[in-house]
Amino acid sequence: MERYANLFISFSLLFLFLNYSLFVCKSMASSLQLNHDQINIMANLSKSLFPNSYHNWNTSDPNPCLWDRVTCSAGTSTVVTGLSLSNLSIPTAANVGDFFSILCRLDTLQNLDFSQNYIAMIPDSFFSNCTGLSGLKSLDLSSNELTGPVRNFSSFASLETLDLSYNSLQGTVETQLSSLSKLKSLNLGSNFLIGTIPTFIVDGRRVAVFEELVLSHNQFTGTIPSEIFEYENLTMLDLRGNSLSGTIPEEIEKLSNLKTLTLCTNQLTGKVPATLSNITTLFHFAADGNNLTGNIPSITKFFGFLDLSYNNLSGEIPSDLLASPNLEYVDLSGNRLGGAIPTNLSTRLHRLRLSGNLLSGVIPTSIGKLSKLAHLKLDHNNLYSEIPSQLGNCSNLELLDLSSNALYGELPKEIGNLQKLEVLALQTNNLSGEIPVEMHELQSLYRLNLSSNSFTGEILPTISNFQQLAFIALQHNKFYGSIPYSVNGLESLNELYLGSNYFNGSIPSSLGDLRYLEILDLSCNNFSGNVPDSLSFMNRLIELVLSYNNLSGHLDLSRFLPSVNVVTIGNKDLIVLKGSTESNSPENGVFVTNDSSKRKILVALAVVSSFVAGFSVSFFMSSLTWKFLIRKQAADVQDEDNLSDLNIRNNLQMVQRLRRFHERYYLGQLTTAT
Ligand SMILES: *[C@@H]1O[C@H](CO)[C@@H](O)[C@H](O)[C@H]1NC(C)=O
Ligand SMILES: *[C@@H]1O[C@H](CO)[C@@H](O)[C@H](O)[C@H]1NC(C)=O
Ligand SMILES: *[C@@H]1O[C@H](CO)[C@@H](O)[C@H](O)[C@H]1NC(C)=O
Ligand SMILES: *[C@@H]1O[C@H](CO)[C@@H](O)[C@H](O)[C@H]1NC(C)=O
Ligand SMILES: *[C@@H]1O[C@H](CO)[C@@H](O)[C@H](O)[C@H]1NC(C)=O
Ligand SMILES: *[C@@H]1O[C@H](CO)[C@@H](O)[C@H](O)[C@H]1NC(C)=O
Ligand SMILES: *[C@@H]1O[C@H](CO)[C@@H](O)[C@H](O)[C@H]1NC(C)=O
Ligand SMILES: *[C@@H]1O[C@H](CO)[C@@H](O)[C@H](O)[C@H]1NC(C)=O
Ligand SMILES: *[C@@H]1O[C@H](CO)[C@@H](O)[C@H](O)[C@H]1NC(C)=O
Ligand SMILES: *[C@@H]1O[C@H](CO)[C@@H](O)[C@H](O)[C@H]1NC(C)=O
Ligand SMILES: *[C@@H]1O[C@H](CO)[C@@H](O)[C@H](O)[C@H]1NC(C)=O
Ligand SMILES: *[C@@H]1O[C@H](CO)[C@@H](O)[C@H](O)[C@H]1NC(C)=O
């Protein structure tokens, strides 16, 4: 009994305590009461930004500390310490001048975020004569429309973080920021700044204590100045997307706290310094899109991310380069690397891209240990190898591109285990044998390119399992048999290439059910019988290639939309009707040469017309952007990956979508170009 009484008392006390806490919290909130002066300033600030009553900064409460976007702190007295006015569509026409001069009286402010608005002009007096904000620690004016030179920031002696990125600032950076002796993080990225990389050293004196320095996507020239290496506390140095020349200095190792070093898309030459391996904190190193030469030293001991793609690196890949246990991402595409692919591979690898080199030898079987691997690109090398069955153990693989090598042998049935596979590109090799039935398990497959090999066998009716498939390229192989009627189950199909095989039989009318089909190539086979009428009902179709078969009967071209390019040459019994005229196809059939450039122009023209007709935006993108994508690829991938680095969890989905988009169109151009 006594025990229950105790229990009851404990519960009551707990209840009282909870109630009391609630009370304390409430009274604390209402005690966040500003003095009269601060209330006035805040009211005037809100009025200066939004002279009209409606706006999306909720200032309806009489106590500004309860407005959203306002942070107050309660010390001896309550004061406003933070304003977060990001993304409020504040136009430059608002009384922004008034706003900034009133703001200078808010002398308790520590953090001001004014990013993502449309401000083009801030009065110079704000930067040089705003003594009230001498306690400001963080100022974010990024993603506005600021123009002109970087102003003299002499007002803000306490500033630790300054972000001016994504504006249109011009000119050089010299001493304008030299009053900011406490600056730890500076972002001037994505402007039009010129001159040499600022060193923030005035009269031999370091004027800031940098930890993060972002100068990316400007027009800085010259070399990487060695003065930068005096900022021993730098954790992030981002110089990508400028026009820097010269070498990556060996003294870079002085930056012994560096975590991220991005030098991509410049004109850097010389070797990759081996001293990078001495920076034990360095996790992310990217210098893709430069003109670096020589061998790659063993630098990855502490790395998680390495991108040296699109340089001019040569020699062999060091045997331990891909082995370091933290390594998640490696891209060495587009160099002149030779020798074999190292066999010692980090089991954390998520992406491995070695495309476009001179690699020879085999695909290592150790690849089967990479259970996290999502992207594997080994295309455009000289690999002379079978496809190891161990690949089937990489159960997270989404993209597998082994095209344009000298691979031989049969496709291992274990490929069927790759349930997440979306892109399978094996074209232009010497692979043979039948496609294993296990392949039909690949429910996520989006692109399948097996063209230009020696594959054989028939297309099974179960091909209709591939509900996601948008692209099938089987041309230039030894496939035979007929196209199964169930082909109409490929609901998402955009492009189907079956040319130059030994297919026969009639063309199934069910092909006409493929509502999204844009390109159908049946050329150079042994198809016979009539061309089914249903093909003329496909209103997305832009190219129908029937040439060099044994087709017969009448084909009335006037039934097709004008945007469709129908190629019929080489069917001696096919009578082609063009409107009212009638002809045998060999002489008058619409003929497209095998010249791939002409072909592309034709396709592009057809695409433009179908786009104008409002049909296919996505295909338009794929055809017209491919030229830009091929060279921009390194930079694009880089940006996406940095995105994921900043906010891995939150951005993962978006990044994957972007990446998927990128891969599709990038790979799309590769496969249609070959
Ligand atoms: C706020 O504006 C009013 C009138 O516009 C003015 O009288 C007052 O001095 C201003 N107060 C502050 C603190 O700026
Ligand atoms: C604005 O704030 C008030 C008080 O804090 C609140 O009651 C109201 O719902 C808010 N309005 C909007 C649109 O968020
Ligand atoms: C900015 O605001 C708009 C609507 O006001 C919203 O759609 C958009 O997502 C916001 N952007 C960011 C980056 O928060
Ligand atoms: C600086 O601002 C004060 C008032 O805020 C003003 O009196 C003074 O003239 C200004 N000085 C300059 C150089 O603009
Ligand atoms: C910036 O302002 C400070 C103090 O007013 C002055 O000493 C310095 O020369 C100015 N720098 C530039 C580049 O105008
Ligand atoms: C680096 O940080 C340490 C500790 O905070 C500090 O003592 C040192 O002065 C800093 N170095 C530089 C170059 O700012
Ligand atoms: C790393 O640092 C050590 C000690 O300073 C030095 O002996 C070694 O040569 C450095 N390694 C490289 C690759 O620079
Ligand atoms: C790379 O540098 C070499 C000389 O080292 C030069 O011949 C070549 O044109 C440069 N290539 C590019 C793309 O800048
Ligand atoms: C690659 O480097 C070699 C020298 O090692 C140079 O001759 C060649 O021009 C460079 N190629 C490119 C594309 O820059
Ligand atoms: C593979 O690399 C790791 C990490 O560098 C190393 O510990 C291991 O001994 C290497 N294994 C072989 C077989 O070389
Ligand atoms: C692949 O997985 C099988 C079991 O599914 C296992 O027996 C084999 O050792 C694995 N191979 C590698 C290289 O990990
Ligand atoms: C392709 O493989 C066949 C045997 O399957 C062989 O005869 C032929 O030489 C190979 N072709 C090339 C280019 O390696």
TrEMBL record:
Compartment(s) where it occurs, according to its Swiss-Prot or TrEMBL record: Membrane
Record-annotated membrane-spanning stretches: 601-622
Domain Leucine-rich repeat-containing N-terminal plant-type residue range list: 37-73
Record-linked InterPro entries: Leu-rich_rpt, Leu-rich_rpt_typical-subtyp, LRR_dom_sf, LRR_N_plant-typ, RLP29
Keyword Nuclease: no
Keyword Electron transport carried by entry: no
GO CC annotations on file: membrane
Membrane topology summary: Single-pass membrane protein
Keywords: Glycoprotein, Leucine-rich repeat, Membrane, Repeat, Signal, Transmembrane, Transmembrane helix
Residues annotated as signal peptide: 1-29
Protein name stated in the entry: LRR receptor-like serine/threonine-protein kinase GSO1
Organism taxonomic ancestry: Eukaryota, Viridiplantae, Streptophyta, Embryophyta, Tracheophyta
